[in-house]
Q: What sequence folds into this?
Protein backbone atom coordinates (compact mmCIF):
# COMPACT_ATOMS: atom_id res chain seq x y z
CA UNK A 1 0.00 0.00 0.00
CA UNK A 2 1.35 3.34 -1.01
CA UNK A 3 -0.06 6.31 0.78
CA UNK A 4 0.56 6.96 4.45
CA UNK A 5 -2.28 6.83 6.92
CA UNK A 6 -1.85 9.02 9.94
CA UNK A 7 -2.02 7.40 13.32
CA UNK A 8 -1.98 10.41 15.57
CA UNK A 9 -3.11 10.31 19.16
CA UNK A 10 -4.79 13.72 19.06
CA UNK A 11 -6.97 14.95 16.14
CA UNK A 12 -4.85 18.05 15.38
CA UNK A 13 -5.66 17.97 11.69
CA UNK A 14 -9.39 18.02 12.38
CA UNK A 15 -9.17 20.79 14.98
CA UNK A 16 -7.03 22.99 12.71
CA UNK A 17 -9.45 22.29 9.83
CA UNK A 18 -12.44 23.21 11.97
CA UNK A 19 -10.89 26.45 13.24
CA UNK A 20 -9.87 27.44 9.70
CA UNK A 21 -13.42 26.70 8.48
CA UNK A 22 -14.84 28.95 11.20
CA UNK A 23 -12.35 31.71 10.34
CA UNK A 24 -13.25 31.47 6.63
CA UNK A 25 -17.00 31.51 7.39
CA UNK A 26 -16.77 34.61 9.60
CA UNK A 27 -14.37 36.28 7.15
CA UNK A 28 -17.01 35.82 4.42
CA UNK A 29 -19.61 37.29 6.75
CA UNK A 30 -17.38 40.30 7.46
CA UNK A 31 -16.61 40.88 3.77
CA UNK A 32 -20.33 40.73 2.92
CA UNK A 33 -21.63 43.07 5.62
CA UNK A 34 -18.84 45.16 7.15
CA UNK A 35 -16.04 45.59 4.63
CA UNK A 36 -17.74 48.38 2.67
CA UNK A 37 -16.32 47.02 -0.58
CA UNK A 38 -18.09 47.34 -3.94
CA UNK A 39 -20.63 44.56 -4.65
CA UNK A 40 -18.43 42.93 -7.32
CA UNK A 41 -15.41 42.84 -5.00
CA UNK A 42 -17.57 41.33 -2.24
CA UNK A 43 -18.81 38.59 -4.58
CA UNK A 44 -15.30 37.71 -5.73
CA UNK A 45 -14.04 37.71 -2.14
CA UNK A 46 -16.74 35.44 -0.70
CA UNK A 47 -16.55 32.98 -3.63
CA UNK A 48 -12.78 32.68 -3.18
CA UNK A 49 -13.30 31.98 0.55
CA UNK A 50 -15.98 29.35 -0.26
CA UNK A 51 -13.66 27.53 -2.68
CA UNK A 52 -10.86 27.59 -0.08
CA UNK A 53 -13.19 26.12 2.53
CA UNK A 54 -14.38 23.39 0.14
CA UNK A 55 -10.76 22.42 -0.61
CA UNK A 56 -10.07 22.42 3.14
CA UNK A 57 -12.93 19.97 3.76
CA UNK A 58 -11.75 17.69 0.95
CA UNK A 59 -8.18 17.48 2.21
CA UNK A 60 -8.47 17.84 6.00
CA UNK A 61 -11.70 15.91 6.66
CA UNK A 62 -12.35 13.68 3.63
CA UNK A 63 -8.71 12.62 3.04
CA UNK A 64 -9.25 12.77 -0.72
CA UNK A 65 -5.59 11.93 -1.49
CA UNK A 66 -5.52 8.87 0.77
CA UNK A 67 -5.47 5.18 -0.32
CA UNK A 68 -4.30 3.45 -3.52
CA UNK A 69 -6.83 5.33 -5.60
CA UNK A 70 -6.03 8.74 -4.06
CA UNK A 71 -4.89 10.10 -7.41
CA UNK A 72 -8.02 8.94 -9.23
CA UNK A 73 -10.19 10.38 -6.43
CA UNK A 74 -8.44 13.75 -6.61
CA UNK A 75 -8.67 13.91 -10.42
CA UNK A 76 -12.34 12.84 -10.25
CA UNK A 77 -13.20 15.63 -7.81
CA UNK A 78 -11.14 18.24 -9.69
CA UNK A 79 -12.93 17.28 -12.91
CA UNK A 80 -16.35 17.45 -11.24
CA UNK A 81 -15.53 20.96 -9.98
CA UNK A 82 -14.46 21.89 -13.51
CA UNK A 83 -17.86 20.70 -14.80
CA UNK A 84 -19.59 22.66 -12.02
CA UNK A 85 -17.77 25.85 -12.97
CA UNK A 86 -18.55 25.37 -16.68
CA UNK A 87 -22.25 24.74 -15.96
CA UNK A 88 -22.68 27.59 -13.46
CA UNK A 89 -20.50 30.27 -15.06
CA UNK A 90 -21.62 29.23 -18.56
CA UNK A 91 -25.31 29.51 -17.65
CA UNK A 92 -24.89 32.92 -16.01
CA UNK A 93 -22.82 34.23 -18.92
CA UNK A 94 -25.24 32.93 -21.59
CA UNK A 95 -28.35 34.17 -19.82
CA UNK A 96 -26.80 37.60 -19.25
CA UNK A 97 -27.53 38.24 -22.96
CA UNK A 98 -31.14 37.11 -22.70
CA UNK A 99 -32.50 38.53 -19.45
CA UNK B 1 -13.00 -11.15 -4.14
CA UNK B 2 -10.90 -14.26 -3.71
CA UNK B 3 -7.53 -12.48 -3.71
CA UNK B 4 -8.64 -9.94 -1.14
CA UNK B 5 -6.88 -11.78 1.67
CA UNK B 6 -3.51 -11.40 -0.07
CA UNK B 7 -3.74 -7.64 0.21
CA UNK B 8 -4.38 -7.82 3.94
CA UNK B 9 -2.11 -5.35 5.70
CA UNK B 10 -2.19 -4.74 9.44
CA UNK B 11 -1.05 -1.11 9.14
CA UNK B 12 -3.99 -0.15 6.92
CA UNK B 13 -7.19 1.30 8.37
CA UNK B 14 -9.91 -1.35 8.66
CA UNK B 15 -12.06 0.21 5.92
CA UNK B 16 -9.34 -0.33 3.26
CA UNK B 17 -8.52 -3.95 4.14
CA UNK B 18 -10.41 -5.72 1.37
CA UNK B 19 -10.39 -5.15 -2.37
CA UNK B 20 -14.18 -4.90 -2.26
CA UNK B 21 -14.09 -2.13 0.37
CA UNK B 22 -11.46 -0.19 -1.57
CA UNK B 23 -13.59 -0.37 -4.71
CA UNK B 24 -16.70 0.64 -2.75
CA UNK B 25 -14.91 3.72 -1.46
CA UNK B 26 -13.56 4.63 -4.91
CA UNK B 27 -17.05 4.11 -6.33
CA UNK B 28 -18.49 6.44 -3.73
CA UNK B 29 -16.01 9.16 -4.69
CA UNK B 30 -17.19 8.83 -8.29
CA UNK B 31 -20.80 9.13 -7.07
CA UNK B 32 -19.82 12.32 -5.22
CA UNK B 33 -18.43 13.67 -8.50
CA UNK B 34 -21.86 13.08 -10.06
CA UNK B 35 -23.48 14.81 -7.08
CA UNK B 36 -21.29 17.87 -7.71
CA UNK B 37 -22.65 17.94 -11.28
CA UNK B 38 -26.24 17.58 -9.98
CA UNK B 39 -25.88 20.50 -7.56
CA UNK B 40 -24.09 22.55 -10.24
CA UNK B 41 -27.22 22.41 -12.43
CA UNK B 42 -29.39 23.54 -9.49
CA UNK B 43 -26.98 26.37 -8.63
CA UNK B 44 -26.91 27.44 -12.30
CA UNK B 45 -30.73 27.53 -12.41
CA UNK B 46 -30.92 29.50 -9.16
CA UNK B 47 -28.22 32.01 -10.10
CA UNK B 48 -29.83 32.69 -13.49
CA UNK B 49 -33.29 33.20 -11.95
CA UNK B 50 -32.73 34.68 -8.48
CA UNK B 51 -33.47 38.25 -9.54
CA UNK B 52 -36.71 37.17 -11.26
CA UNK B 53 -38.87 37.81 -8.19
CA UNK B 54 -42.10 38.80 -9.95
CA UNK B 55 -44.56 40.22 -7.43
CA UNK B 56 -43.04 38.20 -4.59
CA UNK B 57 -40.36 39.13 -2.06
CA UNK B 58 -36.68 39.43 -3.02
CA UNK B 59 -33.81 37.52 -1.46
CA UNK B 60 -32.86 40.60 0.57
CA UNK B 61 -36.45 40.91 1.90
CA UNK B 62 -36.57 37.30 2.96
CA UNK B 63 -33.22 36.09 4.30
CA UNK B 64 -32.19 36.67 7.89
CA UNK B 65 -28.51 36.37 8.63
CA UNK B 66 -28.96 35.12 12.20
CA UNK B 67 -30.95 32.02 11.16
CA UNK B 68 -28.54 31.33 8.29
CA UNK B 69 -25.53 31.53 10.62
CA UNK B 70 -27.14 29.12 13.10
CA UNK B 71 -27.72 26.58 10.31
CA UNK B 72 -24.20 27.10 8.95
CA UNK B 73 -22.52 26.63 12.32
CA UNK B 74 -24.61 23.53 13.12
CA UNK B 75 -23.66 21.83 9.86
CA UNK B 76 -20.02 22.95 9.99
CA UNK B 77 -19.64 21.59 13.52
CA UNK B 78 -21.37 18.33 12.52
CA UNK B 79 -18.82 17.90 9.72
CA UNK B 80 -16.05 18.33 12.32
CA UNK B 81 -17.61 15.81 14.77
CA UNK B 82 -18.10 13.35 11.88
CA UNK B 83 -14.35 13.68 11.19
CA UNK B 84 -13.69 12.96 14.88
CA UNK B 85 -15.86 9.82 14.59
CA UNK B 86 -13.62 8.43 11.81
CA UNK B 87 -10.55 9.49 13.81
CA UNK B 88 -11.82 7.46 16.78
CA UNK B 89 -12.63 4.52 14.51
CA UNK B 90 -9.04 4.46 13.31
CA UNK B 91 -7.91 4.30 16.93
CA UNK B 92 -10.32 1.35 17.39
CA UNK B 93 -12.41 3.10 20.00
CA UNK B 94 -15.98 1.95 19.47
CA UNK B 95 -17.42 4.13 22.24
CA UNK B 96 -15.72 7.25 20.90
CA UNK B 97 -16.92 6.46 17.40
CA UNK B 98 -20.51 5.94 18.55
CA UNK B 99 -20.53 9.09 20.69
CA UNK B 100 -19.24 11.32 17.87
CA UNK B 101 -21.63 9.76 15.35
CA UNK B 102 -24.49 10.48 17.76
CA UNK B 103 -23.34 14.09 18.23
CA UNK B 104 -23.16 14.41 14.44
CA UNK B 105 -26.71 13.09 14.14
CA UNK B 106 -28.03 15.54 16.74
CA UNK B 107 -26.32 18.50 15.05
CA UNK B 108 -27.72 17.33 11.69
CA UNK B 109 -31.20 17.06 13.21
CA UNK B 110 -30.79 20.57 14.63
CA UNK B 111 -29.84 21.84 11.18
CA UNK B 112 -32.92 20.24 9.58
CA UNK B 113 -35.16 21.63 12.34
CA UNK B 114 -33.94 25.18 11.69
CA UNK B 115 -34.24 24.72 7.94
CA UNK B 116 -37.82 23.45 8.16
CA UNK B 117 -38.70 26.37 10.47
CA UNK B 118 -37.09 28.75 7.97
CA UNK B 119 -39.15 27.29 5.10
CA UNK B 120 -42.38 27.44 7.14
CA UNK B 121 -41.61 31.06 8.04
CA UNK B 122 -41.15 31.92 4.35
CA UNK B 123 -44.42 30.25 3.38
CA UNK B 124 -46.25 32.21 6.10
CA UNK B 125 -44.80 35.39 4.60
CA UNK B 126 -46.35 34.38 1.29
CA UNK B 127 -43.09 33.14 -0.25
CA UNK B 128 -43.93 29.70 -1.67
CA UNK B 129 -42.54 27.59 -4.50
CA UNK B 130 -45.27 28.98 -6.76
CA UNK B 131 -44.59 32.66 -5.99
CA UNK B 132 -41.74 33.40 -8.38
CA UNK B 133 -38.89 31.88 -10.41
CA UNK B 134 -36.53 33.02 -7.64
CA UNK B 135 -38.46 31.06 -5.00
CA UNK B 136 -39.01 27.96 -7.17
CA UNK B 137 -35.30 27.63 -7.82
CA UNK B 138 -34.47 28.56 -4.20
CA UNK B 139 -36.68 25.85 -2.70
CA UNK B 140 -35.48 23.25 -5.21
CA UNK B 141 -31.78 23.95 -4.56
CA UNK B 142 -31.90 24.34 -0.77
CA UNK B 143 -34.59 21.65 -0.47
CA UNK B 144 -32.50 19.12 -2.42
CA UNK B 145 -29.64 19.75 -0.01
CA UNK B 146 -32.02 19.40 2.96
CA UNK B 147 -33.36 16.13 1.55
CA UNK B 148 -29.78 14.85 1.29
CA UNK B 149 -29.12 15.76 4.95
CA UNK B 150 -32.37 14.03 6.01
CA UNK B 151 -31.36 10.90 4.08
CA UNK B 152 -27.92 11.09 5.71
CA UNK B 153 -29.53 11.15 9.18
CA UNK B 154 -31.49 7.97 8.41
CA UNK B 155 -28.44 6.29 6.85
CA UNK B 156 -26.18 7.13 9.80
CA UNK B 157 -28.81 5.88 12.26
CA UNK B 158 -28.87 2.49 10.50
CA UNK B 159 -25.06 2.30 10.60
CA UNK B 160 -25.03 3.07 14.33
CA UNK B 161 -27.45 0.15 14.83
CA UNK B 162 -25.14 -2.14 12.81
CA UNK B 163 -22.13 -1.01 14.86
CA UNK B 164 -23.98 -1.84 18.06
CA UNK B 165 -24.86 -5.30 16.70
CA UNK B 166 -21.59 -6.22 14.97
CA UNK B 167 -18.87 -3.96 16.36
CA UNK B 168 -15.75 -3.26 14.26
CA UNK B 169 -15.48 -5.35 11.11
CA UNK B 170 -13.96 -4.41 7.74
CA UNK B 171 -17.55 -4.05 6.51
CA UNK B 172 -18.92 -1.79 9.25
CA UNK B 173 -15.72 0.29 9.12
CA UNK B 174 -16.12 0.78 5.37
CA UNK B 175 -19.77 1.79 5.86
CA UNK B 176 -18.85 4.35 8.52
CA UNK B 177 -16.13 5.78 6.28
CA UNK B 178 -18.48 6.10 3.29
CA UNK B 179 -21.26 7.78 5.27
CA UNK B 180 -18.62 10.18 6.64
CA UNK B 181 -17.61 11.11 3.08
CA UNK B 182 -21.29 11.76 2.28
CA UNK B 183 -21.70 13.93 5.38
CA UNK B 184 -18.60 16.05 4.70
CA UNK B 185 -19.76 16.45 1.12
CA UNK B 186 -23.08 17.90 2.30
CA UNK B 187 -21.14 20.49 4.26
CA UNK B 188 -19.19 21.37 1.09
CA UNK B 189 -22.50 21.94 -0.76
CA UNK B 190 -23.79 24.05 2.13
CA UNK B 191 -20.69 26.30 2.02
CA UNK B 192 -21.71 27.23 -1.53
CA UNK B 193 -25.40 27.65 -0.58
CA UNK B 194 -24.31 29.93 2.27
CA UNK B 195 -22.11 31.96 -0.07
CA UNK B 196 -23.97 31.99 -3.40
CA UNK B 197 -27.57 31.97 -2.10
CA UNK B 198 -27.66 33.67 1.30
CA UNK B 199 -24.69 36.07 1.38
CA UNK B 200 -25.05 36.95 -2.31
CA UNK B 201 -28.81 37.39 -1.90
CA UNK B 202 -28.39 39.79 1.00
CA UNK B 203 -25.57 41.77 -0.63
CA UNK B 204 -27.14 42.30 -4.07
A:
Amino acid sequence: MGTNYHHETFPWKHIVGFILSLVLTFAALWIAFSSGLATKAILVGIVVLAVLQAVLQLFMFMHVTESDSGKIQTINMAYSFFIAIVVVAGSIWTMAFVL
Amino acid sequence: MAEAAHHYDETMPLEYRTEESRLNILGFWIFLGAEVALFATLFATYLVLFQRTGHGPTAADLFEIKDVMIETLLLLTSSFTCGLAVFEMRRRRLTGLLVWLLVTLLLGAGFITFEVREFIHYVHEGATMQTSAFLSSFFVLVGTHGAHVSLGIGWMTLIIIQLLQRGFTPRTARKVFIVSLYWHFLDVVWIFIFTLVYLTGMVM
Notes: Chain B has six helices and no strands. Chain B has one domain: 34-45+61-203.
